[in-house]
Design brief:
Layout (H helix, E strand, L loop, with lengths): L1 H42 L15 H11 L10 H18 L17 H22 L3 H32 L4 H9 L11 H14 L11 H4 L9 H26 L7 H6 L8 H22 L5 H31 L1
Helix pairs in contact: 1-9, 1-11, 2-9, 3-4, 3-9, 4-5, 5-6, 5-7, 5-12, 7-9, 7-12, 9-11
């Protein structure tokens, strides 16, 4: 009876954690769209949403209601089952990544020793949803968008993984909690300082992994109408966008945990500003995540879209060699520290 009761409470606590994380992330995803429209509007000397609610704050809810009530159109030439399942694959794999991310030293859904590898695996699997969406739509534009996504993810997964290899080598662990702890106890306080090259490479790859501008080639409205989502409408199209914004938060969390010290602050910073020691760890992590999300929006408003050949050349000729140089540098640094 005691064993069953313990299992019941463990399951209940896990379900509550899932509900809390999912609710907070979904709310953030909805209002990131609002923030993006307002910030880009200001950058382009316009206002963004203003009509629905005070300062347009109810615009995400209005957009959600609109998508729910729009007709769900399935093209005659589409492969019906795959066409319907593809958006769910993108969303499910994006949400699954949240289960292995620690938001606090004592708050996480699953305590996984190989957390970094799990996130990389599910991030790659989410691409299958985009590929299947392009294949099943019965449209040349959609198919080209799906093929572009496959080539893009295949190319950028390599420098992304190599950049993280330096982080793993420095921390001597695949566990995200250990990576944060190693930064807190290190001389620099965060991996972004000794691994600046790897940090920049990872940041660029994070934009490509989430199909965000200037690497939004799978959609590329000026070339492919809307790419892999050309034939989608209503709530299925909304699921794609939801998966994209959740993936942005997954990448922002991963950058914050692996390169910016997670929920900790460098000792030299707290030494200069002692009042920072009183800030709750979760608030520190949130500020870092918001900073990365702001970078996503800022880059979209600033840089034009790359051509596809430029996209591929950057990965194979620039980012992969730089990530290898970063890994070699960290190996030398670690060897020197262990001597």
């Amino acid at each position: 009876m005691g064993l069953n009761e313990g299992l019941f409470w463990t399951l209940l606590i896990t379900l509550v954690k899932i509900a809390v994380v999912l609710g907070i992330v979904l709310l953030h995803a909805a209002y990131t769209v609002y923030a993006e429209r307002k910030i880009i509007g200001r950058m382009q000397a316009r206002l963004g949403p203003t009509e629905v609610g005070p300062y347009g704050l109810l615009q995400p809810i209005a957009d959600l209601v609109k998508l729910l009530f729009k007709e769900d159109i399935i093209p005659r030439e589409a492969h019906r089952v795959i066409f319907q399942v593809a958006p769910l694959l993108v969303l499910i794999f994006a949400i699954t990544n949240l289960s292995v991310i620690p938001f606090h030293p004592s708050f996480y859904i699953a305590d996984v020793n190989l957390g970094v590898l799990v996130i990389l695996a599910f991030a790659g699997l989410g691409t299958y949803g985009i590929i299947l969406a392009g294949y099943s739509s019965g449209s040349r534009y959609s198919l080209l968008g799906g093929l572009r996504s496959a080539a893009q993810i295949l190319s950028y997964e390599i420098p992304l993984g190599l950049s993280l290899a330096g982080v793993i080598l420095y921390a001597e662990s695949f566990k995200l909690q250990d990576i944060v702890a190693s930064q807190a106890s290190s001389l620099f306080g965060m991996n972004a300082i000794p691994q600046l090259l790897g940090f920049i490479v990872f940041l660029i790859c994070a934009f490509a992994e989430t199909n965000r501008a200037p690497f939004d080639l799978p959609e590329a409205e000026s070339e492919l109408v809307a790419g892999y989502i050309t034939e989608y409408s209503g709530f299925r199209m909304g699921i794609f966008f939801l998966g994209e914004y959740i993936s942005m938060y997954v990448m922002a969390l991963l950058i914050s945990l692996c390169y910016l010290g997670g929920w900790t602050l460098p000792f030299w910073l707290t030494g200069l500003l002692p009042f920072l020691k009183g800030i709750p760890p979760i608030l520190i992590l949130i500020v870092k995540v918001y900073f990365i999300i702001f970078l996503y929006i800022w880059v979209r408003a600033t840089f034009p879209r790359y051509r596809f050949d430029q996209l591929m050349n950057m990965s194979w000729k620039v980012l992969i060699p730089l990530s290898l140089i970063n890994f070699i540098w960290i190996a030398i640094l670690k060897w020197g520290m262990l001597r």
